[in-house]
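Appendix B: complex inputs.
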Amino acid sequence: MPQTLNTSTLSHTTGVALEGVTLHRGSTTVFQSLSLQLNEPRIGLIGDNGAGKSSLFRLMCGLDQPQSGRVCVPEGAQSVGMMFQNPDDQIIFPTVEEELALSLQHLRLPRAQAQQRVREWLASRGLAHWAPRAIGSLSQGQRQHVCWLALMLAPHRVLLLDEPFASLDLPHQALLRREIEQAEPQVMVSTHVLAHVRHFERVIWLDHGRVRADGSGVEVCAAYEADVASRTV
Amino acid sequence: MGSLYSEHRTWLHAVPAALKLVCLALLGMGLFVTQQWPILLCLAVVCVGLFASLGKATARAKPLVMGVLVAGVLVAGFHVVMHQPQLAAVTVLRLLSATLMGIALTLTTRYTDLLQVFEQVLSPLRWLGVQSDRLALQLALMLRFTEHFFVVWRRLDDAHRLRTGKAGGFKILAPLTIQMLVTARRVADALHLRLRR
Amino acid sequence: MGEFMNTSTLSLALVSLFAALIAVLGLIPKIDLPLGVPITLQTLGVMLAGCMLGPKRALQALLLFLAAVALGLPLLSGGRGGLGVFFSPASGYLIGWPVGAFVTGWMMTLLPNRSPRSSAISAFLASAMGGLLVVHVFGVVGLVNIANLSWEQAIMGTLVFVPGDLIKCALCATVVHTVARGLPDWRFGG
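Resulting structure:
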């Protein structure tokens, strides 16, 4: 059923809008005329596997293009950043300082200068000793944190985190939760660990490519949990 | 998996990478131009002396040097058995000189300095489609994943051992290749996001 | 996974990651075949690159790998590396690797790839042409020029390694067969 477009103007510093987006993948329809306005500073995305959470994020950061409809994001080539579930799929350089220096490429600094800035920035966060470390020597949680740091250094206005808590131990989950709370850009988190998004201002429950519920974190999480409980009887 | 660069500083460390490369190239060409074994002998003596002057820095290259000596003995022995002692001498002297100097360069030149020279040399080829600025990125990506795939190999090997009691051997090559191809797609996604300007 | 938007980043990733795979094959100690014959898997990597990536990317992957070796990284079997290896008698074979990978890849584009079985047979033939024949031709040229062997001696010498390399072609074919079954939408030959 087509949804009416919200014609209010979109804020250009943050916020993502989808307008009548239809996405096919092979023979399946992932989204059919989906429209969403996403302006809240913290938004959660929950739902079963295969509901379309990752596909939604891929549309928002430009990895996939919809067959029809539009995705509106803030201006700038790097306005939307994404963190994938597995840090090993996205870390490119063998050491921490080289990896983080890549996030500063928009400044077009020579390599040595970029790495110097990275070292200073890490020192300001109390992580100076991380700079020369080899990625291979870091734990899974530490690698995920490197991915987060890379996102912090890049000029992103919107951050998409795709199941970031999935492979983290409790201490690193707590660390990431705190980082998300204090982050400046808009953050959208897709997760199965509902505890981390329950306190969000807005949570969207996606089911087979459709918005099943959209409201405060507490309400939507409770509705989803009730639904899962009823299905598992 | 460290590099072959030696942290023991020698006089050769201070020489710029580009100069060392040019000298090595000239030496290489010179060695193959002449067939006179007395000249080659002098050159070899100079090269061995130069190599020895690096002192402690050469410790790291011991397996490489052993390899050269073994190759030299085999080749020389072969030619002597074929009743061609002169050819044996010429071949071994060339081999020794060129290889030792190659090793000396590797021991005393930082990977990043050599990379800079490579990039400068390749930059005129940009109009041919060769992207010299991507070279550093691709090398880094390669090194990062060499370590990672080694870990994946060990994990697959452990899993195989648990299930069959034997080492995996080449049977693990196919699953590792599949992993590599799947990872490549995901890495390309991440790269696409981070390299956008 | 649907249509891939940006093929140039995919190429970049495939080239770098395959070069990494070839490096890993050099780090793994010699494998013992059933008859107790030890082989190193790195030359198998050359054949596999051609079969999996197609001519252009396979060439780039091998060039990247050799560039890393030239820069001083001990990525060849036995921990060898640096510019010195390009002056050794076996350096002809090294130079042959990128060319062999290219030829293998090129042949894979010409040969049938419709089923896992046909892909495997094509892989065997392509590997034999590129990874074996071309590499050995370059190797012989290297032996003649650096070790000063005569053409006959060099050819006799290289023939010793051909049986082992034929086994590697067969192994490459089995890997291609398994990958074809595991990733049915992979286009061999790039």
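The CA atoms of residues 72 and 122 of chain B lie 34 Å apart.
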